[in-house]
């Protein structure tokens, strides 16, 4: 059986281009015992993938040249030579960007598409939701009445962080890059205030106006100058969970900015980089709360779905242009599940 | 009774100068019930005092113009109108820079000069030792076999941090500003390696050579370019207790440098500013360990003592020129106690 895959053709310098990706046809081997044949349904597209396109040591190994991209994928079982899965089961795993692929049964997990749409397992019930929960609740430690600022507020993680902060009784201020996103966050997701950093003349001042009691938690998805402006308003004993730095991922040189340590020192601020995969012990607790909040209607989720396996590279570019609201995914099929 | 005091004559721009200090004669009022008359013996001189010379909100309020400096002082009771202290008792407290002063009994604590030299209560048995212990042990969380780098290694706090790290079984690398200090740290205080940043051509590379397994804890007393160089070598899950930023205290503009967040994020690093006075609950534990280690001979202490009340401003300048090894104090008398 033949299928198509997307491989890393070359490493990008700065923003990725089409030339960094190559579509290839490959021949799949026969299934052997313990394996399943999978058809990809939904492919997750995430900012951290940009880092994996570099040949640099990081918390996940880099993609290899001429090897397929990998990431979170929801798939349907087409054929099975194992005891755990049967044909038509829905599964998820960290899988190659192939239209059809073979996986060992140990690499995949079942999902129940009757509880929530299958794609949610890439988002609010997957890495996205876990990241938001663990970063905000376990590193940020929100208390009722505190002010939480979240950058990249309309992104997959940001939109969940803001809603969890509201559940904890916090004032939530989002920072995003369009008036449309700002409206959605205020009107549909309960953010108390949202700042469009692209149309704000003096971001530092505007943050101050929107956070009259200062900032107790800054959930940072973006880094760069937006973070510089927020950090000027941090309170004593405030916390900064560092989740992403999308503003800097395409930089070709070490970015410079105001030194943080004097502020962190004089205000006893905690800054903690975190990677969700190191907090597996908290996954059951997090999943239980996230599911419960979804069931109660306190946690809503939104996706930007792009159709067609061919669109995977473009969808990844789109993240850096801020084209998504909520989780960005690519659907291999035309209809939702 | 008249005495002399040192007041803040003007706020410095950059490095403080003599013109920022003024000596004055004042008349002391009569003692009233609950008060003691004190003669200053040892005056603590600390880097954080530079921040208090600015009119800026920080973790301790700024010194006021035309008001005396205050800081840690060891004093002897000359006269007492309270039940807690009698003449000739040794006490300590946060007191004004006056040769003789009046304090309420609630502002001072007794010290026992038979256990350790009285001046140690400004240092290893005072704020200095507590700062080193709490920052290293409770924020850094050292484990045997880890590598600890300490900047400002020959300073009051650094010299204690290095020795505690050795007690915990760590490899200790100090960074300091003279070969003489480097020799002292290696030969008398057990540091495994010491780097003289002033004579090192490529600090980042030299740190790498001296930390072949990377850096697990960076106890930061100085900030600036030294910290930039250390942070490039931090390991996954490493910790940075932020204790001081002496390299930046005299800056007149916001200092800039490489952005830290991408490194903190990809390596899950914790950075925590801390102020020892917020950890009072840990003081008994810390004092117990510090005293025990001194008694066992595992923790040695050194002081740079400058004689004469007149020398207080010069001693403070001296901190920024790196003139001290260990704790810098000014003795009002010519003989040690």
What labels describe this entry?
homodimer; 337 residues; alpha/beta; Quinone Oxidoreductase, Chain A, domain 1; Rossmann fold; six-stranded parallel β-sheet; 9 helices; 26% helix; globular
Q: Can you offer a commentary on this structure?
A:
The structure is a homodimer of 337-residue chains. Chain A has 337 residues and is α/β, with parallel strands linked by helices. Chain A has two domains: 2-123 and 301-331, Medium-chain alcohol dehydrogenases, catalytic domain (Quinone Oxidoreductase, Chain A, domain 1); 127-279 and 287-293, Rossmann fold (3-Layer(aba) Sandwich), CATH 3.40.50.720. Chain A contains nine helices and 16 strands. Chain A has helices spanning 48-52, 127-140, 156-167, 179-189, 203-210, 224-231, 261-266, 283-296, 312-320, and strands spanning 2-8, 21-27, 35-44, 70-80, 90-96, 100-104, 108-110, 147-151, 171-176, 193-196, 215-219, 234-242, 256-258, 270-273, 303-307, 327-331. In chain A, strands 3, 4, 5, 6, 7, 15 and 16 form a seven-stranded mixed sheet that branches. A six-stranded parallel sheet of chain A has the order 10-9-8-11-12-14, sandwiched between helices. In chain A, strands 1-2 form a two-stranded antiparallel ribbon. The longest helix of chain A has 14 residues, at 127-140. Chain A is globular, with a radius of gyration of 20 Å.
């Amino acid at each position: 059986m033949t299928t198509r895959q997307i491989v890393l053709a070359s490493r990008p310098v700065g923003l990725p281009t089409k030339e960094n990706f190559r579509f290839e046809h490959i021949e799949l081997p026969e299934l052997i015992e313990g394996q399943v044949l999978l058809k990809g349904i939904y492919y997750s597209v995430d900012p951290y993938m940009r880092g994996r396109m570099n040949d640099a040591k990081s918390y996940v190994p880099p993609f290899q040249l001429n090897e397929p991209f990998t990431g979170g994928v929801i798939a349907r079982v087409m054929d099975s030579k194992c005891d755990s899965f049967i044909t038509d089961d829905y599964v998820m795993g960290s899988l190659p960007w192939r239209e059809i692929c073979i996986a060992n049964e140990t690499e995949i997990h079942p999902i129940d598409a009757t509880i929530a749409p299958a794609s949610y397992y890439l988002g609010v019930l997957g890495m996205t939701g876990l990241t938001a929960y663990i970063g905000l609740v376990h590193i940020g430690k929100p208390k009722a009445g505190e002010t939480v600022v979240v950058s990249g507020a309309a992104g997959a993680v940001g939109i969940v962080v803001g809603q969890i902060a509201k559940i904890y009784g916090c004032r939530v201020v989002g920072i995003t890059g369009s008036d449309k996103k700002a409206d959605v966050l205020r009107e549909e997701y309960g953010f108390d205030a949202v700042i469009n950093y692209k149309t704000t003349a003096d971001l530092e001042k505007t943050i101050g106006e929107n956070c009259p009691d200062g900032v107790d938690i800054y959930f940072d998805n973006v880094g760069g100058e937006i973070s510089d402006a927020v950090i000027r308003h941090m309170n004593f004993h405030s916390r900064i969970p560092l989740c992403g730095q999308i503003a800097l991922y395409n930089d070709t040189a070490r970015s410079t900015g105001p030194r943080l340590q004097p502020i962190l020192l004089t205000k006893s601020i905690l800054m903690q980089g975190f990677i969700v995969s190191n907090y597996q012990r908290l996954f059951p607790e997090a999943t239980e709360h996230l599911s419960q909040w979804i069931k109660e209607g306190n946690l809503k989720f939104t996706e930007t779905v792009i159709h067609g396996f061919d669109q995977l590279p473009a969808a990844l570019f789109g993240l850096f242009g801020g084209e998504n609201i909520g989780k960005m995914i690519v659907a291999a099929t035309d209809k939702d599940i």
